[in-house]
Write a structure and sequence with these properties.
single chain, alpha+beta, eight-stranded antiparallel sheet, three-stranded antiparallel sheet, 31% helix, binds adenosine-5'-diphosphate, binds magnesium ion
Length: 319
């Protein structure tokens, strides 16, 4: 069982001065708080079904779900190619694309390192240097083979493990938005632990306003707002899961596949705004780990819209 560390949610402030009273439903899934906000009774009923869908995807994409697909891939893909569902294959292809594009700052083959540190679980600990050195050879994303024709996954190195923790919530938020729209819901806010997808417009020609929480203020204020319709706002930040050593040093849950250690970054939080929620999620993780200078370069290369709060309190908006 994964331990749920609260507060791990990025509080997203919704400015919903709508005429109608919103329906807000919460459930703990994906090791976080998932909230769906809808604006009429029929949409509210549909939103209740959406939680089952989140739970369905969690079983497929989680590394910890013993009857799940990714679990099977991680156990068996070195011995033989493992056939996977269309959904898993799709997210893996996207994850591979972003892994290559960010040169592993987002690395979907980070699994063995995540397991070693255990951040966010009951097994969290600071490993020895030798243990870390051993695991570094297992993080080579080029040793993962995705066969498009057969829809199979194989590993060229024994002990490899894929981890979709840095992209799955984004991907799922978009799928939930698609599900709601397919059922006739024209506006909703889906918030999966700081991965927000704003479906539709708030009003005719009017965007949603989403506030980004200041990590230094407890539940308190927000440091910036963004205005979106049919787009994701995904945040990675220093206020989520971490472990602390005896000296009070904090280690982030985002790890570097170069050093094997949790990243030390001059970014307090980074939010990516994109219609492609999975991309926003993967790039938020990548930008956080790269630090300000390289994160700014990466967002410019990809023409991504971003809001970065630096550790020394500066707010930078891109483009
Ligand atoms: P959160 O899950 O808290 O919203 P992120 O989207 O930034 O935050 O993802 C962090 C998760 O991604 C970790 O818990 C771990 O499962 C995985 N992860 C850690 N480091 C990396 C990395 N360098 N690349 C890809 N995934 C990572
Ligand atoms: Mg992410």
């Amino acid at each position: 069982m994964r331990k749920l560390l609260l507060p791990i949610v990025i509080f997203v402030f919704l400015f919903t001065s709508c005429e109608k009273k919103p329906y807000v439903e919460n459930e703990i899934l994906l090791s976080t708080i998932c909230t769906i906000t809808t604006y009429d009774e029929k949409a509210h009923e549909v939103s209740l079904e959406a939680f089952d869908l989140i739970s369905h995807y969690e079983k497929i994409f989680s590394r910890y779900e013993e009857n799940g697909e990714l679990y099977k891939v991680n156990r068996e893909a070195f011995s033989h190619p493992v056939k996977v569902s269309d959904e898993l294959f799709e997210i893996l292809q996207q994850a591979r694309t972003y892994t290559v594009a960010t040169s592993g700052a987002f690395n979907y083959a980070i699994g063995p390192l995540v397991s070693l540190w255990g951040i966010g679980t009951e097994k969290a600990r600071i490993p020895r240097h030798e243990e870390i050195a051993e695991v570094l050879g297992l993080l080579d994303w080029n040793a993962v083979v995705l066969d498009e024709k057969e829809k199979t996954v194989s590993f060229l190195i024994e002990g490899m493990e894929l981890d979709l923790g840095g992209i799955a919530k984004g991907w799922i938020s978009r799928s939930i938005a698609d599900f709601l729209s397919s059922k006739g819901v024209d506006k909703a806010i889906i918030n999966l632990g700081g991965n927000v997808y704003a479906l539709g417009e708030k009003g005719r020609g009017e965007d949603w306003t989403i506030g980004l929480q200041d990590p230094s203020s407890e539940r308190g204020g927000y440091f910036a707002t963004v205005h979106v319709s049919d787009a994701a706002v995904v945040t990675s930040g220093a206020y989520e899961r971490f472990i602390e050593d005896g000296d009070g040093k904090k280690y982030s849950h985002i790890l570097s596949s170069e050093t094997g250690y949790p990243v030390e970054t001059d970014i307090a939080s980074v939010s990516i705004i994109s219609e492609d929620a999975a991309k926003a999620d993967a790039y938020a993780t990548a930008c956080f780990s790269l630090g300000l200078e390289r994160a700014v370069e990466l967002c410019r290369e990809e023409a991504l819209e971003a809001v970065i709060l630096t550790a020394d309190g500066r707010c930078i908006r891109l483009p």
